[in-house]
Design brief:
Length: about 130
């Protein structure tokens, strides 16, 4: 099981800001299912199921039991669950050991943990 208590530390060190500033603005809880496209401002954590495209102005955290079927655009993304769709990230894409990701991937930085499943083409962008 991935420990999401470390997410705040990861984001604060990457953004070089006080840890009190980093927060989750939107939470889609386990047992919640959303059908349709979503646009959000700020950081979002998803533990439920989403069928539709996500356009996120902040960071995305996909929990271990989450399922997303659709294309995703975010600033940074940490994926520990299942994501079937293309991912476009302006910063870092982190695929955790529990993740199953299928689709095209585009980011400036990519971290893939051993044990994860990553299917599709990856494009690492130049700054």
């Amino acid at each position: 099981m991935y420990d999401f208590s470390k997410v705040k530390d990861i984001l604060t060190s990457k953004l070089k800001i006080n840890s009190d500033v980093v927060k989750i603005d939107t939470l889609i809880g386990a047992g919640t299912e959303i059908n349709g496209d979503m646009t959000t401002n700020g950081n979002i954590k998803i533990d439920g199921n989403i069928v539709g495209n996500l356009n996120i102005s902040g960071d995305l955290i996909v929990g271990e039991n989450a399922l997303i079927r659709g294309n995703v655009s975010a600033t940074n993304a940490i994926v520990a669950g299942t994501l079937n769709g293309n991912i476009t990230v302006k910063g870092q894409l982190s695929i955790k050991h529990t993740a199953k990701v299928n689709g095209e991937h585009q980011s400036y930085s990519l971290i893939v943990d051993e044990g994860s499943v990553l299917t599709g083409n990856c494009k690492i962008l130049e700054k």
